[in-house]
Amino acid sequence: MRVIVPLAGPDFIRPDGSVKAELVVQGQPMLRAALGSRPWAVEVAPERYAFVMADRPETRAFASGPLTRWYPGAAHVFLGQYSMGAALSALAGVATSGADEGPLIIDLADILYVSDLKPRAVFSRDSKCGAIALAFQSTSPSYSYLRLDQDGRVVEAAEKRVISTNASAGTYVFADASVYLVAVAHALRDFDGQQHNGLLYVCPLFNGVLAAGYNVHLAPVTDVVDIKQGDIL
User: Fold this and answer.
1) 8 Å CB contact between 6 and 53
2) CB-based contacts of 60, cutoff 8 Å, min separation 6
């Protein structure tokens, strides 16, 4: 498995010059609290992570200091300018991945949750599964959403539109890098239909997975703590 963490948004650097990843959450830096609580954390070695950041003095200092201590050997990718959304920022991290590394996880690392998901097992059971959406129950317009049909299958994903009560937990699992690239290509071809405020987010990429003929598996999570909404403990 490979984990890509897009941290390249304009809100990553705080007004006081610190970075959002170092906010203390449940007694730990936010980034460590989020990534360390994932059910696959023990399986993924530090060098299997790639962190994508805007190229700023603050992010360079963070990467060479705390980030290197926390995830020695991880890839650090710096963008010279802001991209058109996390879906495209993540591409820079995907570029550090090999062709045969199995599941590709895009983790925004700003929501804590409890899950027992085993991605490899899901993909092994369903050869047509192209992606896994981790979700919880909400109706807040601040989230992205997954809509199911009457048989419980994911049929649509939308950003900041409440099309169901299945809100994305901000972690997206793709069968491999090639499926992710197919989904990005779909979003670029249908930019007007997939963008939100001129940006391409990760959750709507599931529409591209579906359009390519794959299934999207919904994996419920519990005990959600949304860091970006201020639920910091």
Assistant:
1) no
2) 78
Q: At what angle do helices 86-94 and 177-189 cross, to 10 degrees?
A: 140
Two structure tokens written together for 67: 């980030």
Strand partners, 75: 50
Indicate the DSSP class of residue 232: -
Q: In order along the chain (233 residues), what is the average pLDDT of each group of 10 residues?
A: 94 89 90 96 95 97 97 96 94 84 94 96 96 97 96 96 98 97 97 95 98 97 83 42
* Backbone phi, psi, residue 47, to 5°: -75, -5
- Supply the pTM of this predicted model: 0.94
Amino acid symbol at 33: A
pLDDT tens for each residue of 142-166:
999 999 999 999 999 999 999 999 9
Q: With left for phi above 0 and alpha for psi between -120 and 50, is residue 76 left, alpha or beta?
A: beta
Q: Which has the closest alpha carbon to 187: 164, 212, 214?
A: 212
Could you count the other beta carbons within 10 Å of the beta carbon of residue 113? Answer: 21
pLDDT above 70 covers a percentage of the chain that reads 96
Tokens 């990718």 identify what position?
A: 77
